[in-house]
Amino acid sequence: MRPPRPRPPGPRRAAPAALAALLLTAACAPPAEPAGIDLGSGPPRAGTVRPGALEGTAMTFVSYGGSYQKGQEDAAVHPFAEESGARVVTDGPTDYAKIAAQVEADAVTWDVVDTDAIWGEAHCGDLLMPLDFTAIDTSGVPEGLVGECTVPAMQYGMVLTYSTEAYPEDPPTTWADFFDTDAYPGKRGIGGIPNDPAPGPYEAALLADGVDPADLYPLDVPRAQDRLDTVRDDLVFWETGAEQQQLLESGEVDMAMVWSGRAYAAVDNGAPYTVSWDQWLPVMDSLGVVKGTRNPRSAMAMINYYLGADQQARLTELTSYSPVHTGARPDLDATAERFMTTAPGRAEQAAPVDREWWSANQQDLVQGWSSWLAGR
Amino acid sequence: MTTAPPAAPASGAARTAARRPALLLLPALAALLVFFGVPLAGIVWRALTDPQPGLANFTWFFTHPANLDALGRTFTTAAWTTLAALALGYPYAYAMTQAGARGRALLTLLVLVPFWTSLMVRTFAWMILMQDSGLINQALGAVGLGPLHLIRTPTGVVVAMVQMLLPFMVLPLYAVMAGVDRRLLSAARSLGARPAAAFLQVYVPLSLPGAAAGALTVFINALGFYVTPALLGSPEDSLLSQEIFTQVNGLLEWGRGGAMGVVLLAMTLGLLSLGALALHLSGNRRRP
């Protein structure tokens, strides 16, 4: 028998094979940044990148969309792309399940992601990678906001806001007042996201119950839930920032625990509310880099750029969130200035939020919170 | 429905194709397999293996009262939605059969226009209508009534879901009702039945297959509704779809989320087969 002649891979057969290979690599392995990226010599300076350092890099920035992400893009992401030469694609909204799926499939297409700070710290090492602080300058970032895998993306506060029409005199100004339905009758807006028991309701309930701010942590969750139960009939739950604004602007609630930025937006739109900063709770978003990213160096460079004083000032002007660089000098009107969590004296009024405790207990807290919300 | 004209003589190729209907189904089946079957199998697999092989995820589901509450609420909400859609859809579909050509076109358009509008947009529209200072309460206030709490209540969710799902009730009902031979009603009348009795004993049973098809479609769609209850409802009254979202997106507990999905799917399939069985039995009973 004649042995079968090996057929040379002619162009007709090679083309589909090449196409298949291309599709496979496109599907499984996102393009990686060029090797040997030179970010320049010397220590990094926040807000800068060596011009043209990232020519040939294609990377992705992901955040929560809306005016917030647009502000981030205009203040930092697009200028970074222009200066560094990187091609930056933006995507959103941040979706924890998508991050987990990308990491699990080792097909990471999201590089820099904006997440809740507690989630970011809870998933340091399994879904987010440790940051390279030889490439990121955090010297301008306020104390205590930088984690192993995260830097702050902005700051805001969980604040008590009340209707000046419902309470023209002697308004509710403390969490004790918020939980006192006899002295202050009325509907109360409060966060009710089942998968996200953010700092706020528990802390406020315990402070209202007489717990000393210094002894707040570890949180006595059953006690907090019992206290919340006492006002349950008067609670209205919001699940998004837009809903907070809707509650205030439609007058559905007489007082509410909301994000300072949303309270500002509602007031700016003419809603008759004002904020009490007594025992406000500092919260923030983080930037992190997805574990398994093909563009680690570029991602670090982007974060370093994002943390610059000018970028942060611009971000604040565009979004009303407070900057995470102590040297940022945003140009704001008087109303916006009042809503800054970085305004003078604010830090002293804040109640403590132990992010480390929250991230260490995240799983139990989510379960307990969604059960409580569901009435169990 | 009118009888179709006799089919034109088919060409040779078409005849071959007609003899192999399976071949024609192949593209659809392949798409279904790749884009539905495989992911579904993945979900079942995860429910049984993530984080450890076994039935732990299902045990967890059935031993946590909050889950059973959500399951109960999901079925109650779907049942109310179906009943309300039937109550609204039945007279509407009947009116469609009785209207003239123009009237029918208008009525059909009225059912379909919202159907072509994004679910998201409609849900947000309901938010604006239902909020405490919204149009509904302003109108009620103007005549000295209200305010009525609709947003973030189960009632509000059902009202909006009925509006979303009404086309699924009206269209199958109309299709069946249009095929009912109205001379049967005249026959019943000529045999001495009062108009109401003729309607209830002759027309309604003949329209039942449409009602059953509509009710089943609405019910099953309602079981999996996510956007509308998530935006209009209160998290206190969350449905199973929202609980699945919490497990999958919030906790990254894909095994548990998968188990919840499997439970919902199994119950839906169970109901479907019960419905099919009931239809089959009633069909047999009516046959002379």
From TrEMBL, chain A:
Pfam families: SBP_bac_8. It comes from Nocardiopsis composta. CDD domains: PBP2_polyamine_RpCGA009. This is Putative spermidine/putrescine transport system substrate-binding protein. It comes from the Bacteria. PROSITE patterns: PROKAR_LIPOPROTEIN. Residues 1-29 form the signal peptide. Keywords: Signal.
